[in-house]
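Model the whole thing, not chain by chain.
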Amino acid sequence: KAGVTQTPRYLIKTRGQQVTLSCSPISGHRSVSWYQQTPGQGLQFLFEYFSETQRNKGNFPGRFSGRQFSNSRSEMNVSTLELGDSALYLCASRLRLARDTQYFGPGTRLTVL
Amino acid sequence: AQKVTQAQTEISVVEKEDVTLDCVYETRDTTYYLFWYKQPPSGELVFLIRRNSFDEQNEISGRYSWNFQKSTSSFNFTITASQVVDSAVYFCALSDPSVGSGNTGKLIFGQGTTLQVKP
């Protein structure tokens, strides 16, 4: 069974632009979560989607948003990019909500210049 | 507040040495899950183990073993006879109880321990 896939793997943007990252969960998994990883803050939870609904949200500004489609694929969007948004963005999927293990994708490395 | 502390920032060992990675957690919940993930240079977080708060039995998987002690809020990870391929960043994580349901996908991660295994 294929793992979690994320596209693109690398992205370079400039300040003020917006970006959309994509995540395809493991087949059959209905929950998708997003995390931001930076050297300074470590791994931080952004949000989780299940059945096209946002279930949980981390402590990030409104510039960070996401959505989930009926096939469980998810996208996250960051508007008005700032230098501090440079990070590895990791997506994770799990089967359901009930305490299932999350499996992570390879991440998208975003660099904001 | 929920928190995970991995006090060891970097560990360097020579191949075949045993190494233990420490993890201490804080949580207000009585039902929670603890995890270990491995992050090789490629960046992907690889799931290693999940343990729930009611199961204090130690676990062994090949060269890997885990020691969960609720009394000290610790969930330590030991690699026996380390190999160069074990070089990676290792993260301990705690499920956020979030309203006590345990259903949240939010994991609280420690800062990670970078393990370097030299040949």
